[in-house]
Amino acid sequence: MRGDGETELAESTVGSGTERAESTVGPETERAESTMNSRTEPAGSTMNSRTEPAGSHVDSRMEPPESAAGPEWWARAVVYQVYVRSFADSDGDGVGDLAGVRSRLGYLELLGVDAVWLSPVYPSPGVDHGYDVSDPRDVDPLFGTLDDFDGLLADARRHGIRVIIDLVPNHTSDQHEWFRAAVSAAPGSPERARYHFRGGAAPPNNWQSVFGGPAWTRVAPDDEWYLHLFAPGQPDLNWAHAEVREDLEKTLRFWCDRGVDGVRIDVAHGLAKAEGLPDDRRQPGWTVLTEDAPDPRFDQDGVHEVHRLIRGVLDRYPGRMAIGEVIVRDDARWAAYVRPDELHLAFHFGLLNCAFAADEIRECIDRTLAAAGDTPAVWTIANHDNPHPVTRYGSLERARAMALVTLALPGSAYLYNGEELGLPDVDLPDSALQDPAWQLSDGVRRGRDGCRVPLPWEGEGPGYGFTTGEPWLPMPESYGELTAADQLEDPVSTLSLYRQALELRKEHPAFRGDEVEWFGAPEGCLAFRRVGTTLVCALNTSERPVPLPPGDVLLTSAPLEANGDLPPNTAAWLA
Ligand code: NOJ
């Protein structure tokens, strides 16, 4: 067995293809346990989109949504989140950029992803690294130009990769022309009506910012307060204002006309605020996720009007999609975001918040599928707001096992850049930390910088092929052993595991079906099958090896025991 954080496997993890005769994790023991029988294949679904010839993405993008080719591309896509600042730097300033992304499209094609989601690249002071937008219809010089964006889009198409951009409708930057005009204008002016301004000696209510501290800041002493649910540099827009809605339509059309394939909606549960901005009556410290405690800042019924507006625009551009970042307190409310006239998909975040424990994971999967209903589920174990899986689960072995679980599930999967290299979070010195979530919580929270350290591509430090300059966050020496170049050459690297998994997911006929059924499994283990197929995924989170279910081993996240058993902290695919 390997210890935590080790980066190499001793033997090939690709299965031998031998049939396994005996099992205690088999369907024969408890097929009745299936809990997902109500999920039915959508009418006309043939999943042909997974077998399109390379390059056909481009030509099919403008076809009607429900074409005879099967479900839309996004229903089963593997999407790779590019945190642009940290992906690849083309000009040596230490910050990733669009030309950098463009230069690495070959890598993404080799990895086998269907699409990329780009973190925001709009003009921005960078208080929240681009989630504070001062112009939603342009590109920040730090990342390049609109021409670079168009070039990236065109090249991505040539590589058979679709492009999703990140829209930030809940707030702008305090440097957005609207907010600057609002600050210069008088209380009660039309300029201030696009935001939430209120007068008074004290903050208008007790709301806290998500990053820490009050959600209200004064524009100047003796002037009004403005609302910001995140950093003070991110004033919240007033979604009751017609110009705010019109401007989002304009932004959507601007990017759809350029040819983007989809939009990720930041804080899709934000936007509308409780009528009258009442005090938050919940326990101090409760989060938006706290059950049975409505949060006046988020998930107000009014948000759905905005999502209908977004859908209305996208429906005029066949093949385009919207996926929402939706964090709400119950699954029924979550499901409302993916009603037929709202967002196409929504992150559920069940797995992202789940411990490495089979029973919890199984419950998360069931909950996510049940909430999604007929909408494709979205699976993710990593993003730019959370520790890398290696760190969160406590070992590379576990992260690799969870990758196989995630990629075996029906629906689409979102990977976070660096996840495929098995990068751990970096414990940065305080002096290097930049996240407002660290600064505004007075250092109580470490923030999110640790998972945003740039990707090691090849060679030596300090830039490891990410940059020829100094990376914007220091890259540790340990990243030198995890470079993409080295891992491409190593058949048992984490990168090779992801490549094999994505290839199987795309090509193997067993990766079909929208339902899962559970097998009986020993304590600390789980095994599910994609209904109507032979694909079985087994996971062992217990401390002892267990026999595998019957079937040919397609892929395992670590070598099997000498007797063929599934070791602890390991997952296997069988068919
Ligand atoms: C969610 C984004 O994922 C996060 O990075 C950002 O800080 C907040 N929204 C505010 O825009």
Which terms summarize this structure?
575 residues, alpha/beta, eight-stranded parallel β-sheet, five-stranded antiparallel β-sheet, globular, disordered N terminus, binds 1-deoxynojirimycin
Walk me through what this model shows:
The protein has 575 residues and is of the alpha/beta class. Helix content is 24%, strand content 11%. It has 16 helices and 16 strands. It has helices spanning 27-30, 56-60, 84-87, 98-103, 105-111, 146-158, 177-184, 242-258, 303-314, 331-335, 358-372, 389-393, 396-408, 436-439, 484-489, 494-507; strands spanning 78-82, 115-118, 162-167, 197-198, 216-218, 225-227, 262-265, 321-325, 345-347, 378-380, 412-416, 516-518, 525-530, 536-540, 553-556, 570-574. An eight-stranded parallel β-sheet has the order 9-8-7-3-2-1-11-10. Strand 5 and strand 6 (225-227) form a beta hairpin. Helix 8 (242-258) runs parallel beside helix 9. The longest helix is centred in the middle third of the chain and has 17 residues, at 242-258. It is globular. The two termini are 25 Å apart. Residues 1-69 have low confidence and may be disordered. Bound molecules: 1-deoxynojirimycin. 1-deoxynojirimycin (NOJ) binds next to loops. Residues 128, 131, 168, 230, 266-267, 325, 384-385 line the site of 1-deoxynojirimycin.
